[in-house]
Amino acid sequence: MPSKLNHTMMQQGLDQLADITSSEERIIQLLQIYVELFPVKNALLFRYSPLGHLAEGIVSIDSTGINYIFSIRDDVRSLPGIFSAIHEYQAKYIPSQDYLTQLGSKYIPNSDSLYSVLVVPICTGSTVIGYICSNEFDEEVMFHQDLLSDFTRFGNLSGKLFKLTSKIDSTHGLSKRELEVMEELAKGGVIKQLVDILGISETTIKQYVKSVIKKLGVQNRTQAVAELVRRGVIS
User: Fold this and answer.
1) What gap in Å lies between CA 76 and CA 85, rounded to an integer?
2) Average pLDDT, the chain
3) Which of 29, 79, 117, 118 is the 20 to 30 Å CA partner of 210?
4) Residue 162 to residues 2, 67, 73, 137, 171: CA-CA distances in angstroms?
């Protein structure tokens, strides 16, 4: 798959997720985009805390559907392959011959079979907040450096998405566009100016403002801006 096409599809796909108000649906859509974009057949999403280096399973997706993996909890320091991917902020491919030394024997479903594994850190700046693992791939896929760089890029863009939507989630489901409108208003902009800044009509902007007022349970635009500033969502 050409890198430029991959990057374009990746950005467009992830941008669309910002307007999904359900965090659960957003996560599932994220994994579906990942499987569609890349030569992988499954994806397991983990949250990660640098305090204690604890990883916790969230959800997985494969040909059988969606499964929740909350029972998986690990100190990734005991899993060198995953720990190194997190420490280096880069996607890492672990071939089957290195499975035991890099991941241990805990996740081997069949003692006669070893799996190759891909680890994709999800980063927000210099902090890793989670990672995606895959161990089923398209036939004859070669994990060359360009492909691993694309996986790393996906992890970085996913981290930005989670950072943005964490703000949105704290504002009773404001969409990305609603948040952009309120940020511009907080800077002192007026609706007529926002038409050129955001490239949307005055009617649409007023609809966004009305929606925000309703979601926040305030009386007017000024109160809406003040409430979002108070919550630290905008400044």
Assistant:
1) 10
2) 87
3) 29
4) 26, 21, 21, 26, 14
Give pLDDT tens digits for 107-159.
665 555 678 999 999 998 889 999 999 999 999 899 999 999 999 999 999 99
Inter-residue contact 178 to 169 (CB < 8 Å): no
- Judged by phi (left if over 0) then psi (alpha if -120 to 50, else beta), residue 148 lies in alpha
Please give, one letter per residue, the 3-state secondary structure of the chain.
Answer: CCHHHHHHHHHHHHHHHCCCCCHHHHHHHHHHHHHHHCCECCEEEEEEECCCCEEEEEEEEECCEEEECCCCEEEHHHCHHHHHHHHHCCCEEECHHHHHHHHCCCCCCCCCCCCCEEEEEEEECCEEEEEEEECCECCCCCCCHHHHHHHHHHHHHHHHHHHHHHHHHCCCCCCHHHHHHHHHHHCCCCHHHHHHHHCCCHHHHHHHHHHHHHHHCCCCHHHHHHHHHHCCCCC
Around Cβ 220, how many Cβ atoms within 10 Å? 10
Q: pLDDT tens across 16-73, in order?
A: 887 787 788 999 999 999 999 999 999 999 999 988 899 999 999 999 999 999 999 9
Q: Which residues pair with 124 in a beta bridge?
A: 127
Residues 91, 118: contact at Cβ < 8 Å? yes
* Interacting residues of 186 by C-beta distance below 8 A, sequence separation 6+: 225, 228, 229, 234, 235
